[in-house]
Amino acid sequence: xxxxxxxxxxxxxxxxxxxxxxxxxxxxxxxxxxxxxxxxxxxxxxxxxxxxxxxxxxxxxxxxxxxxxxxxxxxxxxxxxxxxxxxxxxxxxxxxxxxxxxxxxxxxxxxxxxxxxxxxxxxxxxxxxxxxxxxxxxxxxxxxxxxxxxxxxxxxxxxxxxxxxxxxxxxxxxxxxxxxxxxxxxxxxxxxxxxxxxxxxxxxxxxxxxxxxxxxxxxxxxxxxxxxxxxxxxxxxxxxxxxxxxxxxxxxxxxxxxxxxxxxxxxxxxxxxxxxxxxxxxxxxxxxxxxxxxxxxx
Length: 298
Ligand SMILES: Nc1ncnc2c1ncn2[C@@H]1O[C@H](COP(=O)(O)OP(=O)(O)O)[C@@H](O)[C@H]1O
Ligand SMILES: [Mg+2]
Prior knowledge:
This protein is α+β, with helices and mostly antiparallel strands. The chain has a single domain, classed as Aminoglycoside 3'-phosphotransferase, Chain: A, domain 2. 47% of the residues lie in helices and 13% in strands. The strands form 3 sheets. It has a 4-stranded antiparallel β-sheet with strand order 1-2-4-3. A hairpin with a 7-residue loop joins strand 1 (2-6) and strand 2 (14-21). Helix 3 (101-117) runs antiparallel to helix 7, helix 6 (154-162) runs antiparallel to helix 9 and helix 7 (204-214) crosses helix 9 (248-273). The radius of gyration is 19 Å and the shape is globular.
């Protein structure tokens, strides 16, 4: 639950309180041994707290996130309270369902800067592999999948993504709903929230998932190349600003090849979790088929 609180006599007038109560969920699952969904949630709040405590301060205005104020974990993993800067008071009061071409680029720019900021991060206290659909945390969805090549190659697709030379932190749930847009027209700035699934990974996972959250199959197909080129230009620029000594063309080559793998990996989750999901469309099917063809050598 998200609440806005007004503080009297404090440095900040308004703060956001993210309150999570897992005590009832824990009671329901006690004794079931290895309840994966509950454990995933517990870990996700520990990770979000760790992110705000120890990583958020490295994010500058090009990948704006709320500032951390305080956190408290209830006894026995019963719940969490996170107190954060209110982004609405810092001009990011606008939320979007549909996004314009310019807003898509603003979000991709946020992702590129975030990925540049955390290139080769140790991810201490975060997920060792980021995203909420990561295979190791989704055995039930894998089991629920219809037999077929995507299920058969799920582990291999995951392995390829995890073996990328260039690892950064991925946001892990970078959909349009987790971006907060500036209320000043066209200043091009966005901020992001919801860091429960932040962890190490290939940046293409965020990019593919972000595109899936805001473009139709037709738009995703038509714009794929221009959006990827825009993302990589920004990434190169942001890495250069940080003077990170980097073989950028090797990174770009490797990550571009992994873009279809990132899509296939997300489709693997969707087809176990919600087989008729609208994101399982002609575009994502074609990409998944191309990955399978590559893996089978056909
Ligand atoms: N610090 C913040 N400032 C302003 N709005 C926020 C802040 N944190 C969260 N929100 C708003 O609340 C929504 C839900 O928060 P989020 O952390 O994404 O929780 P959930 O895990 O329930 O999705 C966000 O999409 C955003 O609109
Ligand atoms: Mg959210």
